[in-house]
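quick q for whoever's on today - can somebody do inverse folding on this one?? i tried earlier but teh output was garbage lol. tokens:
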């Protein structure tokens, strides 16, 4: 009708209300995902349930169904969100360094910092967790491949730059992944070696085989 405005056309506060609602919902969902990631990492997939997660948020279990249809959906959102953060961070490190050897060394260093200091739930969610359903395992495997691909590209660039053997470089990378997967198991944050020193020493150790391959 001529001369009238819809609610979406109102200037000022009325137009902003939906965006505030959406922003608050996104904040609540992010908080749920962070808490759920910690619970899944601590208790495993089958040991965690929506009631436990809700209790840590001072909510009732059924209230989580307003945001997630099932535990499976919540778990996949947790691992997808964690993977996106970690992969984005690693790709930024890779993009900032031109020298192939230094690029791979810095990626190893960053991975140690991610595991030990910044995202302690990352490894339990991606490596040690046991999943009961084949479709869940396949989805998780896809995310692992995305994460590994960042290192594989860097390792291949080192091999091309130094003229090394492809099989040796691939083996060296697999050994590095195995070592990185167990750092939180033995590293003592209260010990004499700080996290930064740990990351530097691990990176120096892991890059060594690539220089000899």
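ok took a stab at it. sequence:
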């Amino acid at each position: 009708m001529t001369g009238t405005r819809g609610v979406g056309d109102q200037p000022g506060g009325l137009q902003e209300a939906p965006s505030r609602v959406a922003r608050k919902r996104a904040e609540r969902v992010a908080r749920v995902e962070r808490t759920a990631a910690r619970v899944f990492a601590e208790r495993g997939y089958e040991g965690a349930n929506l009631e436990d997660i809700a209790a840590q948020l001072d909510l009732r279990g059924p209230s989580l169904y307003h945001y997630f249809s099932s535990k499976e959906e919540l778990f996949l959102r947790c691992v997808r969100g964690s993977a996106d953060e970690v992969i984005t961070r690693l790709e930024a490190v890779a993009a900032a360094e031109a020298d192939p050897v230094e690029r791979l060394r810095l990626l190893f260093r960053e991975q140690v910092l991610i595991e030990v200091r910044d995202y302690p739930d990352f490894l339990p969610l991606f490596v040690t967790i046991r999943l009961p359903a084949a479709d869940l395992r396949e989805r998780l495997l896809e995310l692992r491949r995305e994460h590994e691909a960042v290192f594989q590209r860097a390792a291949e660039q080192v091999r091309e730059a130094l003229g090394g053997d492809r099989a040796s470089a691939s083996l060296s990378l697999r050994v590095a992944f195995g070592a990185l997967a167990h750092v939180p198991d033995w590293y003592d944050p209260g010990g004499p070696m700080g996290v930064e020193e740990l990351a530097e020493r691990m990176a120096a150790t892991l890059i060594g085989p690539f220089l000899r391959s």
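fwiw The CA atoms of residues 30 and 78 lie 9 Å apart. also The chain has nine helices and no strands. so keep that in mind when u check it
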